[in-house]
Structure formats: structure tokens, C-alpha cells
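Sequence in, structure out. First:
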Amino acid sequence: MSDNLFIGASQELSLASKLTSEGIIVSTPLVDIGVDLIASNKDFSNSIPIQVKYKSREKNIFFTGKEIDSYSSKNVYIAYYLAKDSWFMPFDKFLQLAERPENRKDRAGYIKLKDKADNLDQYKNEQGFSLMLEAIKNA
């Protein structure tokens, strides 16, 4: 069993804890509905599904074609952890910035961090977390 599975699970728990400390109600689906967490404001008037990804060696924000199909219709926020950095953004923003080469049979999409750094700054680390937090509280 890969260590990444354990690290990924710890990232989900860490994010859930951080959101909870900010007054967000966090749930984990009992069945696999394609997202890891559901974050709601205090009066449950707004809920946002969150997909958490952890990659230890990847240099891009990457999703398979199947994942893209699944998340595109769900108003999903992504929390993407690469080594020591993290990005928090609406999945729609990922789709706007992602490259999806037509010659890829897996229909995957990815954002090359080195090429899109300026577009991603607002979603990176604490600044990105704050944007996600506001989206949960105020949408």
C-alpha cells in the first residue's frame, strides 16, 4: 500500500480540522460520491463539496478525464497539495486554466505551475484557503 494514500488521508483530515477551526461544518460522505469533504456554513445555507488531492512528485495540477467529467457538474472546490505548497480553487477555475491536449486518450487536464504561476497566485497557500473559506461562508 502506497504511503501517498496515508498522506492523502492526513491532508483531508488536516483540511477538515482547519476549516472546523474557522467555524465551518465539515462532513465526509459515507459513500463515494466523488468528493472527499462537504463544507457548510453555520446555518447550512451554503455547502461546497471539496476534492482533496495530494501528490508528492507531481509538478502540475493534474486531473484525469474521468475526474474532470465527475467534478465538472458538481460545483466542486479543489484542495490540491504538491509537496509543501497547496492550491484551493473552484474546479471551474481549474478548467479555465488547464491544458487538455486533444491527442491524449485519457482526456486528462493539467495546469503547468511554472507557466501559470501568475494566474494561480491568488489560489496558493493561505491566500487560496481564505478565498475558499469566504466562498463557503458567503455564497
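Second:
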Amino acid sequence: MTIPTFTVVPNTASPSTFSSDMDSWLSEIAAWTAAVNAAGTAFALAVQGTSTSSVTFGTGAKTLTVQAGLGFSVGMDVVIASTATPTDRMLATVTAYNSGTGALAATVWSAVGSGTLTAWTVSMTTAIDPAQFVTPDGSQTLTNKTISGASNTISGLTVASGGTGRATLTANNVLLGNGTGAVGLVAPGTSGNVLTSNGTTWASSTPSAVLDGVTNAGSPYSTKLGAGAGTAVASGVGNVFVGVDAGLGMTTANDSVIIGRNAANNASNVTCTNAVVIGAYAKSNFAASNTANYSVAIGSYAGFDSAEVQSVAIGHYAGSNQNSGSAASVCVGAFAGQ
């Protein structure tokens, strides 16, 4: 299409020819205007067309037929929009166009809308490189991009895609792997609970019975394990108290070993030196100070309620109830010397 040029342009600097030049220019202006309008119309049509091809919304390769003789070319970015609802559209790059038949092929990399339509408007758009911008639809690989959590939300991210499969994670819960499924949660449960395996999974459980206590690396070099064990001992060194209420009531003890529930459990304010007492209630109830000194009582209730010093009682109830105040007795066997 050619736009004609004017033969002459009127100029007031040439007053002698101005009138004739103006007549000539006016005679040519109509043809020039028509040519310019035609060129403008042709340019607009070159990058816009319509189609009645049946096309389904989605990404990937699409083909449709528009008008022939348009200006679409390979590499051009276009919008393929629903004629009825233009906001439902696909952004694509032209891969082929036959100006003789109007056949247009394009690769769609972003689609908003659903279903299959037969009324489309195709027009050129500003080039958008999906490698540089996040598109509203379709699969994309992002490289060196920053997503601000303050203004963006990623929801429903599965474990396979690097997420948890959960919308929220309960505060202070422990997370458990679950293959490709949503991560599991274990609540803390009761205070003092521990994470326990049942061979298949984990749970918050009450721990097995344990001894509470302390071992002194320095003076008084004592070990106290068990609720109430040796709790009243205020002076003395080198003692071992193991068991609930073992040595309960002693205020002074030296180099003694008291092991067992209520072993050497006595009235308050008693003392004990160099005694070995092993067994539940062994050497219990020696109410007077120093009446367990240098004694050995092994067995449940061995030396129970006995006031003898430097004695040996081995066996169930052996040497129990010996309150004569004598020393150096030896009772071996169940109920021996009772």
C-alpha cells in the first residue's frame, strides 16, 4: 500500500504562487487522507484477528484459524482471549502462521479460564518472557527468585513438592515423617512425658519409674537416689542412699551404704557410721543414735527394730528386734536371732 506525496506544499513565503499552490494541495489532500486511513486500518488488522476454531483452555500447543493476510509472525507474543469474556484468556507465542490460509499455531504458557470455546479474539501483546516473570498458570522453574512471605502465600504444598502437606503445624508438637503423606504430629502430653517408640511409630508416654537424685563429685561425696533418700542428712561424708525413703530420718551419717525402700528408715535426729544396710526395711526403726554403727544388715527386714551395734544380720527378718544393746552378734538365715 502506497501513500501518495503532495506535488506542492503552499508556503506564505511565496505569495505570488500561494493561491495556486493551495488549490493544488487541496485537490490532492482527499486521496492522501484516504490512503493514510487505509494504511492505519491495515496495520490494526495485521496484529489482530478472530477465530471460530474449537480450542480448550490450557497450556501447551494450540492451533486455530484466523483471517488470512494478517501480520502474525513466528516468535510474536499474542493474547488468545474469549470474545465474550476477555478476562478468560491464554498468553502464547506464535510458532507458525500461514498468511494464505490463516492457520495459526502457538504455544500457550499461561491460561486463565476453563472449558472449550469457539469464539476467540487473537491480538499481539507485549512480549513476556516466562523465564523472567512468574506467570499466573502453568509449570515454571524459578531461578534466583525471592518470594516474600509477607505478601505471598503458597498453600497446599505437598511433601513431594517440598512442603508438609498441612495448612498449620500445632505449636510445640513433634513432627513425624509420613512418606509422601502429610507429616504427623505428636503432642507433648502430660508434663514429664518422653517420646517413646512402639516399634512402628512414636508417642508421648509416661516414662518408666526412674530414681531421682544426685551424686556429689566433691565433698560430701554422697549419692542419693530415690524420693526421700537421705534427705535429712545435714552432715557427714561418703554415704550412699538408694531407694524410696532410704535412710530417712538420719541427720548425720558417715561412710554408710543404705540401699532399699525404707532401709534404715528411723525416727528423726539419729546418726549412723560405717553401716551397710541392704533390703527393704532392713535395719529400720533403730531409734537411738549410733545403734547401727559398724553393722551389716542384708535382707528384707534384716535387723529391723534392732539396737545392736557391730552386728551382722543376713536373711529375711534376721536379727530383728534385738534391743539388748549388745554388740557383735551374727544372725544368718531367715528369722535368725529374732
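Remark: The chain has a mean pLDDT of 83.
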